[in-house]
Amino acid sequence: MRIALFVTCLADTLFPEAGKATTVLLERLGHEVEFPAAQTCCGQMHVNTGYARAALPLVRRYAEVFEDFDVIVVPSGSCTGSIRHQHAMVARRCGDEALAARAEAVAARTYELSQLLVDVLGVEDVGAYYPHRVTYHPTCHSLRLLRAGDRPLRLLRQVRGIDLVELPDAEVCCGFGGTFAVKNADTSTAMLADKMRSVLATRAEVCTAGDSSCLMHIGGGLSRLRAGTRTVHLAEILAATPDTP
């Protein structure tokens, strides 16, 4: 099975450890992961901001780069949601039915990390070791768009050494929402305050999630509070072993 990594813009530019951890984890499980260097943005930001036609070249590029792979793994529920639910729609709205068909075919083989592990590879115990108190934030796109459900939690429960604590009001949005945080900054800030209150109530050392964007938002707020709680991508926890620094 040929597995490709779609690393996403945020991981590429700001949070490379998420992409590296995804690769380390899958290779530890016996799979070779390829990284097509020609990959670019999924176009989610363009579509969500109302520039669907500007996203069309990005939809075409994604199909061209990844259509020869059996599986594409993405360390982001948000970007996976965009690929699965926006790419074909964008192509059709722009009158390119042939591209829409290609986009649908590639999207069907594109998986968020926890879905790939549980649904495709059939594994919940990935051999991880992470001796920290952790709480999990289910991001909106993974929860509502991808229907990832409890897959991330099932993976976390199998991590050795972890003290996994339930996050109060877990399903409430953290307030990021991409450009929403820019266009509606006051509302976003208020939602973040509620989320941080819930995180701090757990007394967790680490807040984890499957999206670097939400972790960036939550982590930024926590760092300004000097709360002592840090954010770590789900992939980094699952890739951790007793030998991890």
How many extended strands?
Answer: 8
Helix content: 40-55%
Oligomer: single chain
Poorly predicted spans: none
- Distance linking N and C termini: 31 Å
How are strands sequenced across the largest beta sheet?
2-1-3-4
Number of domains: 2
Mean pLDDT: 94
Q: How much of the residues is beta strand, in percent?
A: 5-15%
Return the string of H and E elements: EHHEHHEHHHEHEHHEHHEHEH
- Give me the secondary-structure category: alpha/beta
Structural notes for this entry:
- With 245 residues, the protein is α/β, with parallel strands linked by helices.
- It folds into two domains: 3-120, no CATH class; 133-239, Rossmann fold.
- Helix content is 52%, strand content 11%.
- The chain is built from 14 helices and eight strands.
- It has helices at residues 9-13, 16-28, 44-48, 52-66, 77-85, 87-93, 97-107, 113-120, 140-145, 151-157, 180-183, 185-201, 212-225, 234-239; strands at 3-5, 33-34, 71-74, 110-112, 133-136, 163-165, 206-209, 230-233.
- The strands form two sheets. Strands 2-1-3-4 form a four-stranded parallel beta sheet, sandwiched between helices.
- Helix 13 (212-225) links the parallel strand 7 and strand 8.
- 46% of the residues are buried.
- The mean pLDDT is 94.
